[in-house]
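Quick check before the chapter quiz. The format below is the same one you will see on the exam, so make sure you can read both the input and the output lines.
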Amino acid sequence: MPQIIYEIINLFSSALRLIGLAALGVSIGWLTLDLLRKTEVWQVQIAVYLGLVGLAAALADFMAGGALGAFCIGLGAAIFMWGMPKKKKEGEAEK
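Here is the expected output.
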């Protein structure tokens, strides 16, 4: 009987880890893209990019495959949402 309880707890913890890493991927993606968009100095852009690549490499080494997949899905969703064109308001004139 205790084995079933441990399996249920393990299932909930894995699901919580996936959701948390997906949220972390979205937030780090938005932060990275915001920093890349606002800065104009190429050295800072390289540092931000290499930091993101280093984080992904560290996660690939130390995390399980499913957790890394959830992080990458969140990161990809942030990049996709950032790249979409913004809707224009009706009262706004075209430039």
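If your answer matched, good. The mean pLDDT is 87.
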